[in-house]
Amino acid sequence: MNPRTIKLHDCEFNTYMYEEEIIARITMLAEQIDRDYAGKQPLFLAVLNGSFMFASDLLKRVTIPCEISFIRLSSYQDMQSTGHVKEVLGLKEDVAHRHVIVLEDIVDTGHTVNNLLQQLKERKPASVETATLLMKPDCLQHPLEVKYVAQTIPNDFVVGYGLDYNGLGRNLRDIYKIVS
Ligand code: 5GP
Ligand code: MG
Ligand code: MG
Q1: What pTM was computed for the model?
Q2: Residue 114 · residue 58 · CB < 8 Å
């Protein structure tokens, strides 16, 4: 496929991962989750806004009975993780005794997921795991076990497929990497 360059605000981005490859990875994750959670009826909590496309494509491929809900937890501005994390918004479900799977767009420092998992564990779920589209292992600052990772990437800023740069780029079907 031909590489493409796009401009969002003041920055240029090049194609990095194409939709077909993303879907292939997500299909494998869905099959893994189907196997791991057979008979457990998990509750998926997709973290908005970034995970909406990942959640949609993953959950279409999960075939076991499951519940799906959406929460918000935002702490990211521009290209730097701010470190401090806000509380969970929009969680209506009682997660006590449930098998919870958090759906994230990307794990960078791990502050966000670490904080979210701590807040969820206080509600005494039967189990909590994380499924993320992307993970930057070199940036991780917490001893986090992220069980389901569609793709690990180097420490580059990426957009597309749900991920934004100051509000733009979420609608792109492929993932793009910043031109440095
Ligand atoms: P963490 O708390 O793990 O450092 O960062 C998690 C959040 O930062 C993600 O949910 C995402 O919103 C944002 N983030 C981290 N890296 C990137 C990136 O490369 N591109 C974009 N668009 N957002 C990112
Ligand atoms: Mg996120
Ligand atoms: Mg963002």
Answers
A1: 0.94
A2: no
The CATH number given to whatever domain includes residue 38 is 3.40.50.2020
Burial class of residue 144 in the structure, from the number of CB atoms within 10 Å of its CB (0-12 exposed, 13-18 middle, 19+ buried): middle
Complex ipTM value: 0.97
Q: Which residues surround ligand 2, an ion (CB under 5 A)?
A: 50, 104-105
Identify which of 11, 81, 109, 130 to mutate to test ligand 1's pocket (most ligand atoms within 8 A of the CB): 81
Average pLDDT over residues 126-141: 97
Site residues for ligand 1, CB cut-off 6 Å? 50, 76, 81, 104-112, 157-159, 163-165
Q: Is residue 61 included in any domain, yes or no? A: yes
The domain containing residue 34 runs over which residues? 5-73+94-178
Taking only the tens place, the pLDDT of each residue in 50-68 is 999 999 999 999 999 999 9
Assess whether 10 carries a catalytic annotation: no
Number of domains the chain is built from: 1
